[in-house]
Design brief:
Mean pLDDT: 89
Number of helices: 2
Low-confidence stretches: none
Strand content: 35-45%
Number of domains: 1
Structural class: alpha+beta
Helix content: 25-40%
Number of strands: 7
Distance between the termini: 19 Å
Radius of gyration: 15 Å
Strand order of the largest sheet: 1-2-5-6-7
Largest sheet: 5 strands, mixed
Length: about 100
């Protein structure tokens, strides 16, 4: 997994990035969907409402989970053509929108 996005409104998304159309290694290809399932099940059971403790302070948060997104690029730059999200080709503007909650 390359990125975890979480912002102030408690939106959460996992990102796997692949540049130059490289295949995801098998260990990641199995682990990432499993992690995604675990998070989805946890959100389902808790309604996304959890309590975490950081530096002896408790925080109550309500996660809005947006899933695991596989972002693939045909080159080494997102400015180029050939952008895919979960196997579907998208424009760079669609990608920006997707990552902007």
């Amino acid at each position: 997994m390359d990125s975890v996005i979480r912002e102030r409104d408690e939106n959460l998304m996992l990102i796997e990035q692949n540049m130059k159309n490289k295949a995801v290694p098998i260990c990641q290809a199995v682990t990432l969907p499993a992690l995604n399932e675990l998070i989805m099940k946890g959100v389902e059971v808790t309604g996304g409402k959890i309590e975490v403790e950081v530096y002896s302070k408790k925080y109550h948060i309500e996660i809005k989970y947006h899933g695991l997104k596989g972002i693939q690029c045909a080159s080494s730059s997102y400015a180029s053509r050939g952008l895919y999200v979960n196997g579907k080709q998208v424009s760079k503007y669609k990608l920006i929108n997707l990552l902007s909650f």
